[in-house]
Amino acid sequence: MKAIGLYRYLPIDDPESLIDLEIDTPTPGGRDLLVRVQAISVNPVDTKIRAPKPQQEQEPKILGWDVAGVVEQVGPECQLFQPGDEVYYAGSVARPGGNSQFHLVEETIVGHKPTSLDFAQAAALPLTSLTAWEGLFDRLEISQDAAANAGKSILIIGASGGVGSIATQLAHFAGLKVIGTASRPETIQWAKDHGATETINHHQPFGEQLKALGMENVDYIFCLNSTDKHWENMVDVITPQGKICSIVETHGPIDLSALQSKSATFVWEFMFTRSLYHTNDMIKQHQILDLLTKLIDRGKIKTTLTERVSPINAANLRAVHAKLEKGSTIGKIVLEDFR
């Protein structure tokens, strides 16, 4: 089967950084599904894993953790899916990614694709949606009952990116007042179109901007961009006993004691935790994706696809990686159609 992968970790402008491959089609066992891949999306995690380093691979490293496709075969222990089912999922960072014509994935982290979306529209969603859902409802422990959130607010740092585009929608659906950070006219409009009530500029102090909106602080903060850079601003504007969640690793120590006087909570969200450690609640990602499918098919949540690229090959994938590395994309870029 066709696949795209790497043996060496190189700058994206090097033609060897991602290459076209022919590899064997795998066979599903246990609770694995063999999925015929129809569309894939690219996330910052792909570029981070692919980033230059001395390490070399003996077997090709396949990236890609956003897939939409059709179940081709099921393992002997599968209970949730059957051949012919249309699915979408992010997969596991501990296994080969989905940048291949066929892909193995454990069914407990797979969802039924929304019928209202095509494969490319669906492929834009899994990783960012799981990250947003887990960050909001599992880590920050926000209620999904809008009535329970009356009068509460959330600041989403990086509201126009892949995760932010879903988090703003989910937080709005949950009844929160959503303040998103954005700095360009197009990203401000995008954030407001996806559920942000107000926006502030993440290049300027948060406190003064919130006061201009008639707010002293926020109940929740979801940090999707540079934990280091925004730490002092987050400490400043989080309400006493509030909660902060980040998905972005730090590059040095942060002063957690700065939150002590406010008895504020700081927590991480890493979408791959459940599949990486095979946690007892791993099936929750299947359940989240199926709940998201219902919301999408009811018109409550919309895809964040902004650009389609075809066909799926190494040259096109390198071009998409290069766009993501510039850090100014809005929404999600999807590749479709192996040829």
Strand tally: 16
| Binned strand content | 25-35%
Task: Give the CA-CA distance, first to last residue.
Answer: 11 Å
Average pLDDT works out at 97
Question: What spatial form do the alpha-carbon principal axes imply?
Answer: globular
**SSE order in H/E notation?**
EEEHEEEEEHHEHEHEHEHEEHHEHE
| Rg from alpha-carbon coordinates | 20 Å
Amount of helix: 25-40%
Named CATH architecture of the largest domain: Alpha-Beta Complex
Structural class by sheet pairing and helices: alpha/beta
Stretches where pLDDT is under 50 for at least 5 consecutive residues are none
Oligomeric assembly: single chain
Largest sheet: 7 strands, mixed
CATH fourth-tier homologous superfamily of the largest domain: Medium-chain alcohol dehydrogenases, catalytic domain
The figure for the number of domains is 2
CATH class of the largest domain: Alpha Beta
Q: Can you count the helices?
A: 10
Topology:
Elements: E1 2-9, E2 19-22, E3 32-41, H1 44-50, E4 53-62, E5 67-74, E6 86-89, E7 102-106, E8 110-112, H2 119-123, H3 126-139, E9 153-157, H4 162-173, E10 177-181, H5 185-193, E11 198-200, H6 206-212, E12 218-223, H7 227-237, E13 238-246, E14 265-268, H8 273-277, H9 284-297, E15 305-309, H10 314-326, E16 332-336
Parallel strand pairs: 9-10, 9-12, 10-11, 12-13, 13-14, 15-16
Antiparallel strand pairs: 1-2, 1-4, 3-5, 3-7, 3-16, 5-6, 6-8
Supply database-style keywords:
about 350 residues; alpha/beta; Quinone Oxidoreductase, Chain A, domain 1; Rossmann fold; 2 domains; seven-stranded mixed β-sheet; six-stranded parallel β-sheet; 10 helices; about 30% strand; globular
